[in-house]
Structure formats: C-alpha cells, structure tokens
Amino acid sequence: DVCSSDLARSAPDGYTFLLYGSSVWVLPYFRRMSYDPLRDLTAVSSAYSQAIILLVHPSLPVKSVKELMALAKARPGQLNYSAGTTAATPHLAMELFKYQSKLDLLRVNYRGTQPAVNALVAGEVQVMFTGAGSVQPLVKSGRLRAIAVTTAERSPLTPGLPTVAESGLPGYEFTSVVGVFAPAKTPAAIVEMMSREITAVLKRPEIVESLFES
To answer: How far is CA 77 from each of CA 81, 100, 103, 123, 151, rounded to the nearest angstrom?
Structure first.
C-alpha cells in the first residue's frame, strides 16, 4: 500500500502521521510488502471504529442474513460479492462471513470501495459489506438493501438494523478500527503527546457528530 509504505520510509521526526484502518496489520499476509508494519510503524492512537453493514441488491429476494444464507446454500457459487482493495474492510468482513457460514460466494474485484459499491448498485454483483455511513443515501433511496450490521451490538448509525449474529450467524462480529500511525523510532515523548491530544480532540461534541455523519 502506497500510503503506509511512504510512512514507513519517512523520517521519525514527529511531523509525519497517517490515519489508516486496522487492515494495515494483515496486509503482509495477502501480498509482498516493502515494509513490516510491526517493525516499521508505531501505533499512536485509535481514532474511531466504523460500523460495517451487509448489503444486497434489491433484486435479490432476501431481507435477512438467514434468508441470504439459505439462498446462497441453495445456489453455491452462483452469488457474487464485490470487493475493492485486497485486505480492506469489505474483503475481510465477507471472508469472515464466508468462513463462519461455510458459504460459497464468488469474489469480484474492483479498484477500490466506491467502484465496488457502484457495481452492487448496477446489479453486476449481488452482495457486499461496506461502511455504514457512506451508503446511507443509497439505502434510503432503495437502490440498495441493508440487511444487517457487523458489530456485536446494534449501531445507532443504523437504527433498527439487526446484527449479523442475531439474524442468522451467531458469533459473527467484525469492526473496522481506524487509527493514527507514525514511523518507527518516532520519539516516545512525541507519540505520547500526539496520543493525548488526539484523544482529547475526539471527545469534542462537534468531532463526534462529524464522525457519526461521515
């Protein structure tokens, strides 16, 4: 990944930071990387966690996880799911779902999350996981159907939407965590100061509201 690779190569002078998802830790398991996140990055602070929702195209005759699983089991290998970047949230959430449910769903790759969402809207694929906030307008307009949220508890961002665990797949839980990272060997005093300041900023009501709406 270009952004995290650039950070790993940056001088640890306290002037360069990166906001990135928790998938940074698993990227080396999917492809050859020019750096080792455990060795070359320093975790500064968590920023926020993101609710992930399970979406289907409205033409698919399912309105719950239980119904989706029944349909997929009746049609093994015939339902496609869209995924953007390898090891990004939509990909990992679906692979965990497939593993726990033992479903045979075909992955269709797109260059990023937005093209993957566009493919679902167009009906090129039938299923997808993605961040809840970014697709709310599409769900409200009926162009996509949301059937569950991946968090352990129901999310205030998607009121009324059940969790995957309670609606068909007990034990399933997936949360996307976004954090702030710095190059390895960044002075501890700077890391501690930034962590403290980031935590304070994230408690401001206007920041909480903006993250809730994003």
So the answer is: 11, 16, 8, 17, 27
